[in-house]
Amino acid sequence: KQEVTQIPAALSVPEGENLVLNCSFTDSAIYNLQWFRQDPGKGLTSLLLIQSSQREQTSGRLNASLDKSSGRSTLYIAASQPGDSATYLCAVSRWALNFGKGTSLLVTP
Amino acid sequence: DAGVIQSPRHEVTEMGQEVTLRCKPISGHNSLFWYRQTMMRGLELLIYFNNNVPIDDSGMPEDRFSAKMPNASFSTLKIQPSEPRDSAVYFCASSLGQEDQPQHFGDGTRLSIL
I need a labelling partner for A53 at 20 to 30 A (CA). Which of A5, B10, B63, B113 fits? Predict the structure, then answer.
């Protein structure tokens, strides 16, 4: 059974810092990996999708990497802003998504 | 573009009552997923459909839960009878059903069973 783990569970940083969120998974037989953002009381917003054959994807200040063989992914957020405060979820896919428990990020002004 | 639409946004009902959650996927998407989110267990897949056919319902907790997709633009998740432990946020998501395509989520239904 696929297990997805996210570290740390919570993170607080001052505005402007660069930060890294970590995700690990136990079964490398995946189609893709997705990073989501969830704001309190809201649904999930897809940030980045990395196909199993890719190594990384970038969108603005976000960069996600994938090392399928070691079962790891990282989400790098550059120059963090208070508006980045949210829970970030990692999910691996073989059609349906297996989610980690998320990292709760607080960026303080 | 309209995203995935779920209704109701909130539902509070008493134990034993029937609950029906509704989902309208993004037009043209042929895969639909129901997930449940709780503090203890996080987000878990309940069931998913491809071209209106249930593909994997192994996440459905028990016989009290049932899901249908009568056509490409509508799905329901029904709980009968409901129990307090069913309280959670239920999300519907849809995708183009290809491995390089992301899943798009609705805003969820927050369900409270008293």
Answer: A5
Cα separation, A27 vs B71, whole angstroms: 34
Rounded Cα distance between B6 and A94, Å, is 24
- Phi first, then psi: give them for residue A66, nearest 5 degrees: -140, 125
Answer whether B56 sits within 8 Å of A96, measured CB to CB. Answer: yes
Cβ neighbours for A37, distance < 8 A, ≥ 6 positions apart = A44, A45, A47, A86, A87, A88, A89
Nearest CA of chain B to the CA of A80: how many Å? 24
Q: What percent of chain B has pLDDT over 90?
A: 83
* pLDDT score at A43: 87
Whether the upstream peptide bond of residue B8 has omega within 30° of 0, thus cis, is yes
Tell me the average pLDDT across A64-89.
96
Cα B17 to chain centroid distance, Å, stands at 18
Q: Do B99 and A42 touch (CB under 8 A)?
A: no
Find out whether A44 and A101 touch, Cβ atoms under 8 Å.
no
